[in-house]
Design a protein that fits this description.
Arc Repressor Mutant, subunit A, two-stranded antiparallel sheet, 2 domains, about 350 residues, 7-stranded mixed beta sheet, alpha/beta, 15 helices, Rossmann fold, globular
């Protein structure tokens, strides 16, 4: 055994454990509002911060020191800590498109799935997203919502030829795999002359969508349990969206066929899905988050895609552009185009009949 290689291997393994601990501390900081309390950028001591938050100084001190050691907080002289402007955007400001703390908010529910996954390894059948409970749906919503709210209507839709004028004039829109409905409701608010339909199979996500609909106060949007109310078999929709969901589906090919039946011949389908490459080697070489994404796949994405017997099981990095084009063409679509929207994680495709 090579002693130096052993040392480096141990560093890798315990570096992963260190990341898990830091992730847990980010979860706590988000849940307890600690980052928001640091959003003014003023450096604080543990005594100052405990007074500000009304929490125990000893516990606050250890949290601040962990976050400083991990590089999440800036370490200042005199035992003080602060949150940088970049840290505010990522961890405190949920209106910023770079806000990422939401992805940590269902961390306990995600990790708890590990207790059930040995059975999935034995049987080959995974777990649906509802296995994470209501907090899982809320966490996914918090993770995706900032980008939808900040950029979908002003940045993305104008890049799609003819879509904005058609939405302004009035047409029917479907968001398939709509989750908590944030994207759909942003469009519904912006285009009151159009009608919007969200289709979802997660009961917890549909519950969140109902709450979001009531809060939005719009009358041109509705949500449907896709098991009970599937997409219509007639060409009704002029615009269809699927955001971050095709790789999670047990049978995406059948869903694509349903979309082809439900979309008008002059319609547009916008696909957003995880940036992926055709081979494992390419993903590891070119995606610095590959290990995290393969782990996410086992815990959630691939598990969902295998939650029924004979599920396709694409997983987080399984729906690369070549496969996306192949599958959409097999479903009866003739136009496939990738568009670059500068998203750090997602690829976008414009598909037409």
């Amino acid at each position: 055994m090579d002693a130096d290689r052993l040392k480096e291997y141990l560093k890798e393994v315990f570096g992963a454990l260190s990341g898990a601990m830091t992730s847990t501390m980010i979860y706590l900081g988000d849940r307890m509002g600690l980052y928001r309390a640091l959003a003014d950028g003023v450096p604080v001591t543990s005594v100052d911060f405990a007074t500000r938050t009304g929490l125990s100084e000893r516990w606050i001190r250890e949290w601040l020191q962990q976050q400083g050691a991990a590089g999440i907080l800036e370490i200042r002289e005199g035992g003080r800590f602060s949150l940088s402007p970049e840290g505010v955007a990522v961890l405190a400001d949920d209106s910023h498109p770079a806000f990422g703390a939401g992805f940590f908010s269902h961390l306990p529910q995600t990790i708890q799935l590990a207790e059930r996954l040995p059975e999935a390894f034995r049987t080959g059948v995974g777990l649906t997203y509802d296995a994470m409970g209501p907090e899982g749906a809320r966490g996914i919503e918090r993770g995706l919502a900032p980008w939808f709210r900040a950029l979908l209507v002003p940045l993305v839709l104008p890049r799609l030829e003819g879509v904005v004028p058609a939405l302004e004039a009035g047409m029917s829109v479907a968001d398939v795999g709509c989750g908590a409905g944030v994207a759909l409701l942003e469009m519904a608010k912006a285009f009151p002359s159009s009608e919007f339909h969200g289709y979802e199979i997660s009961h917890h996500a549909l519950d969140r969508a109902a709450e979001n609909l009531a809060e939005a106060g719009v009358t041109n949007a509705s949500f449907h349990d896709a098991h009970q109310e599937p997409l219509p078999k007639r060409a009704r929709f002029g615009f269809v969206t699927t955001f971050d969901c095709l790789h999670d589906m047990t049978d995406p090919a059948s869903v694509m066929l349903e979309i082809r039946s439900a979309i008008r011949d002059d319609g547009t389908w916008l696909i957003a899905d995880i940036k992926a490459l055709p081979t494992f080697e390419e993903n590891v070489e070119k995606n610095p988050m590959a290990s995290m994404m393969y782990g996410t796949s086992i815990l959630t994405c691939m598990s969902s895609a295998l939650s029924e017997p004979d599920g396709l099981g694409l997983g987080t990095l399984g729906f690369h552009s070549e496969l996306a084009e192949q599958m959409t063409r097999e479903a009866g679509f003739s136009h496939f185009e990738a568009i670059d929207l500068g998203h750090p994680v997602n690829a976008f495709y414009v598909v037409k009949p």
